[in-house]
Amino acid sequence: MRFQGSIGVSGVFIPQDPGGRDEAAQQGQAQFDWGMSWFKGQRIGNGQAPVKRYNRKLAQLIHRDKAKPSFLVSHELGLDEAPDAYRRFDDREEGWTKVVLKPAG
Fold it and tell me: Which whole number is the average pLDDT over 50-73?
């Protein structure tokens, strides 16, 4: 990362990740070079997003075609396919990033 840059950690945090790529990840840890980060004056932010604060406004932006989050969606499936889709996502199968489930009707 560049000097004076920022890292924003997003996603879902779990204390341990049994499927992580190495032992540290499996224990909810990551190796990080604090000395270089300090030297470069970098910042790190994380935490839970205040989702309820933004839901209504974001939904309206999507409804009015002002925001297009669809580029994140890898699959659109029926609700009956949810268990298999979740398994594929949880198993980190290639290409399973965000799934939109559509109830019948």
Answer: 89
